Amino acid sequence: MTEQTTTPSPDSPTGRSSTSSTAPPEDHLVTTLHSLDLPDGPLNYTATTGTVVLTEEPEGEEYGRGCAYAELFSVSYVATASGASSADAAERPVLFAFNGGPGASTVWLHLGLLGPRRVDSGDAGSPADPPHHLLDNHETILRHADLVVVDAMTTGYSRPAPGAKPARHHGLTADRDLIASFVIDWLTRNQRWTSPVFLAGESYGTTRASAVAARLMDRYYLAVAGIALISPVLDFGTISFDPGNDCPYVHYLPTYAAIAHAHGKHEGRLLQDVVDEAEAFAEQEYPALLAAGLRLSTEQVREAAARIGALIGVDPGWVERADLRVEHMAFLAELLRDQGLVTGRIDGRFTAPLGDGNAASMETDPSIDQLAPSYTATINQYLRAELEFSSDVVYEIMSGRVHPWSYKDFENRSVEVASDLSRLLRKSPHTTVLVSHGYHDAATPFHASEHVLAQLAIPRSDYDERIRIEYYEAGHMMYCHEPSRLALSQHLAEFVTGEDAAVDASPEK
Questions:
Q1: Where is this region: Disordered (predicted)?
Q2: pLDDT tens, 436-478?
Q3: Residue 286: phi, psi to the nearest 5?
Q4: How many helices (H) and strands (E) does the chain have?
């Protein structure tokens, strides 16, 4: 059953009304009714899909009507229950979710983890074959909170308003402001200002989520109830392999060890034991070795290379030639070179044949290559066939058109949002944080995130009581691994409901 909030032209395949090119842009939304069969009964919900026009007051004027500047695409899932009052609905939590990139649409969290329908993507070693299809998601967060998945500018179907330029939104600060404006607009349109508001971001989406949450508090005095940081990066200085910066070599090493374990380089050992040993070395001995540099004797270098090589599963001579500094793209090309394979960056459990057996770096990422086709096929089919929305522009799954991405506000310093997160937690005493790490994630390594979280400018009691950190035996998009998907779904459910039910589906740190 479908309710359309716009009337498409009979001869238009796009769902957009035929209007003059000079007419102001309009919202283009379609609302459909759905029901998900769960073990404890049906979950009825509406899905509102399409683009909304965001407006802003003209700069330099004392007062001005809002001028359109962006059309953002989103899907809003709102649970419905017979007999429920509008007051009950207004107090139900609402979760706003987005991916990162920059340049990634939110298809990954939408169909991989959160929505009422999920993609059958397969996993490492067994990616799904076409034809690709969707499954009912019995673990959807919609059981506990209404869900809004939104695409950032130039991703998905999000575009600037006619006559506006997309580049103004392609940067950390402008993107932050745009998403914050969308959240305010959605709460206002849907009369949900009293609902507990949660944000969920993945990868650069965690950078976005931290910045947006701080912006909502600083600009609008909206204190979010919680932020879910999935595969986080909060300080780019911890993962950027720049000359003179040894931090990434230290923070990536435990991830290298975990990936080596996944490929049988630590036969007979538990993953947790390998990770613990690698973290101890990375925190205690490794920084001193790198700092010593040329002051190390030949024997000391050889001993250090042997130790590192054993931990991360590569030839010590290769480590020695790298000056004890193993860059991640080089590691992913080297680890299984003798087998003619390259290892995944997004998820180090994935592999693909090497194109050039002597390549110094990985040519492409097999984890993205093997997962993306199922997401691409299903989102395009799902939006049209089930949510009944279509457009004449391409749904941008991963867009390079957002680059160059501007970090102009961080000139001469590291790009970081840890200070935003710290400020928010100091200002808002009820905001909590859920952090989710994949052990085999070579894009945003877990040890880097651990380090940044431990340095937040907040009281120790807040770190202990308001930040929950979980780990999964998978990669960046840990939900492609079924045990990790189930565990993460349970952790998110506990997070938005405030419950702390014991879950033993993922390893403890």
A1: 1-28
A2: 999 999 999 999 999 999 999 999 999 999 999 999 999 999 9
A3: -60, -45
A4: 15, 17
